[in-house]
Amino acid sequence: MRSAAPSQTRGSSSRARAGRRSRKPGSGIEGLRQKWSGSKKDKPMNDAAQSREDLLDRLRRSDHVPVLIVGGGINGMGSFRDLSLQGIDCLLVERGDFCSGASRAPSRMIHGGLKYLETGEFRLVRESAQERNRLLANAAHYVRPLEMIIPIYSWFGGTWAAVRKFLRLPARMQQRGALIVKLGLALYDIYGALNRAMPRHRMIRRKDVLREIPDLDPGIRIAASYYDAWITSPERLVVELALDGMAANPGSIALNHLRFDGVEGGRARLVDTMTGEAFLIGCDLMVNAGGAWIDSVNGAAGSSKRMIGGTKGSHLLLDLPAFAETLHGRMMYFEAEGGRICLVSNFMGHALLGSTDIPIEDPDSAVCEDDEVEYLLSAFRRIFPDVPVSRDDIFFSYAGVRPLPANDADDPGAVSRDHSMPELPPEGDRRFPILSLVGGKWTTFRAFSAELTDEVLRRLDMSRKMGTEALPIGGGQGLSQQAAPVERLLTCMIRHHGLTRSRARQLVARYGSRAEGLAAALADGERFLTHLPGFSREEIALVARSELVRHATDFLFGRSSLFLEGPLGFEALQEIVDALAHALDWDAERRISELEHVIGRYRDLHRMEVTPQSGVRPRFVRTVGA
Ligand SMILES: Cc1cc2nc3c(=O)[nH]c(=O)nc-3n(C[C@H](O)[C@H](O)[C@H](O)COP(=O)(O)OP(=O)(O)OC[C@H]3O[C@@H](n4cnc5c(N)ncnc54)[C@H](O)[C@@H]3O)c2cc1C
């Protein structure tokens, strides 16, 4: 990346200037229309990323690709990177932005799957624990160890149900007692032993845990502590896989906002959702990584086979900073009514509470509903009875659909989280087979992608050039869980690019070792936003241009964690759209429609209302669709 547009100064004077700039002719969308219609463009920046137009042009010029991947969630993108590394040209198409399905809606745990011990899925636990340890090493910039605390209410509860489950007899686990938790964690330690990265479990006496977490229900008997991991920026990791894949193989292309629309004349029909332009492209093999939409993608390709039985999971982000602080960076892993496991953790100063597990037919309709809000809040009140919490504390809500295999289980929690790769042979007009990536976890995406890649290599009679077991991802390159590599990076950014220590830290937290490239490009100076002083116009522009941003929502929900971190009021959104507009050459009308699109998305998918009057914290909309 080359230098950003030269800016005037750093620090407070630039902020003051930015403040003066932000005085507007009127408030609300109408005021913006007047303001933006006369605005000038920033000096254009050059960067290494290929523009969408270049990528589409390549598509226009080709009529065949060995592998077409439909779906840019973690499983599609993991496969894209692995196949590209083997020298196989792939085209990945994602109808929305990358990572916009289930992969953007997880509990953010990178975990060995403690609860799969109950269903006897030992292979899955072993694989998950191993992949967790690998991600701690390969994506150290976003994946960190996480201490989990299990509050326990009895000594022997759940033992009989566990024995029945182990014997594969019907049973519902609830009120898991100290004995069963202790046994489970001892086994879990054994599975996590390979490449062990974290301490073993320990039991904590009641009085000790209550001293450490004073808001916890005093009715508990004992607690257990063990380690898993969490991911700060799953959405960014998916984009980094796309960039890594394209860098590894210039013949591979990943395109967002391009929908697989069916088959025509034996070839796949793709539609640019930004312009309506259609493309026809043949392939040797199609990989359906459509997650909860796998059946609809296969349906468009002429198959009526049912593979998916998705369940919706919702989360709430609660604005309870004092409570979140008392967790001291730990995640509580506790039982809600009926024995379902819920989680609450401190996510960037807010309490992240999840999740539900409800069968759903149409994944496009997934939004956190009123009864889920009640369920989650009452689960929270059970273990933190003295922490006052209500709907007024909701800062954000999100829902996603797990792409589980089709099933007729009564208890959605009992459906296996393992993955499979069923094949649809060529049929009718469709001359290529389809492999569908059903199920799986965020945690296990690398292993799933490697399985798919090995299968493709076998079909193409090729052998693997390299494995991904120890391959860093994006800004994880050069970093580890140790402090020393980060310190070296910070020193370099401060010394060579003139950044302050706190700004260098901020960039490393956001971009890992990719921050160094950014720092070099930002060295000429930055103009920080008035309402979001942690971001500069130059940083936003660089990310927008080098990380395949097409819409303001791509930046807000996919290249930054701003939607979770906040606070994001109307004024901050307006500044971000303005910065993106300069970088991506949007005219006044486009800016308005982008801003309206962001606000609409907040309202329709997250039940949050952003208006000029809503202040810095969007308001939770009480009735779905209101
Ligand atoms: C509530 C919840 C909590 C979870 N928590 C965790 C957790 O803590 N840890 C963990 O390891 N796992 C977790 N998971 C599981 C994990 O998130 C999913 O298994 C994983 O994200 C699935 O990824 P995917 O790529 O298969 O599907 P998705 O991420 O859903 O990707 C499918 C993509 O296909 C695209 N698509 C659909 N139709 C088309 C089309 N016609 N053309 C082009 N593109 C199309 C969609 O837009 C979507 O982006 C959780 C899941 C949920 C829902």
From TrEMBL:
<keyword id="KW-0560">Oxidoreductase</keyword>
<dbReference type="Pfam" id="PF01266">
    <property type="entry name" value="DAO"/>
</dbReference>
<dbReference type="InterPro" id="IPR006076">
    <property type="entry name" value="FAD-dep_OxRdtase"/>
</dbReference>
<dbReference type="InterPro" id="IPR031656">
    <property type="entry name" value="DAO_C"/>
</dbReference>
<dbReference type="InterPro" id="IPR038299">
    <property type="entry name" value="DAO_C_sf"/>
</dbReference>
<dbReference type="InterPro" id="IPR000447">
    <property type="entry name" value="G3P_DH_FAD-dep"/>
</dbReference>
<dbReference type="GO" id="GO:0046168">
    <property type="term" value="P:glycerol-3-phosphate catabolic process"/>
</dbReference>
<keyword id="KW-0285">Flavoprotein</keyword>
<feature type="domain" description="Alpha-glycerophosphate oxidase C-terminal">
    <location>
        <begin position="468"/>
        <end position="591"/>
    </location>
</feature>
<feature type="region of interest" description="Disordered">
    <location>
        <begin position="1"/>
        <end position="50"/>
    </location>
</feature>
<feature type="region of interest" description="Disordered">
    <location>
        <begin position="407"/>
        <end position="426"/>
    </location>
</feature>
<keyword id="KW-0274">FAD</keyword>
<protein>
    <submittedName>
        <fullName>Glycerol-3-phosphate dehydrogenase/oxidase</fullName>
    </submittedName>
</protein>
<dbReference type="GO" id="GO:0004368">
    <property type="term" value="F:glycerol-3-phosphate dehydrogenase (quinone) activity"/>
</dbReference>
<feature type="compositionally biased region" description="Basic and acidic residues">
    <location>
        <begin position="39"/>
        <end position="50"/>
    </location>
</feature>
<feature type="domain" description="FAD dependent oxidoreductase">
    <location>
        <begin position="67"/>
        <end position="407"/>
    </location>
</feature>
<feature type="compositionally biased region" description="Basic and acidic residues">
    <location>
        <begin position="416"/>
        <end position="426"/>
    </location>
</feature>
<dbReference type="InterPro" id="IPR036188">
    <property type="entry name" value="FAD/NAD-bd_sf"/>
</dbReference>
<dbReference type="Pfam" id="PF16901">
    <property type="entry name" value="DAO_C"/>
</dbReference>
<comment type="similarity">
    <text>Belongs to the FAD-dependent glycerol-3-phosphate dehydrogenase family.</text>
</comment>
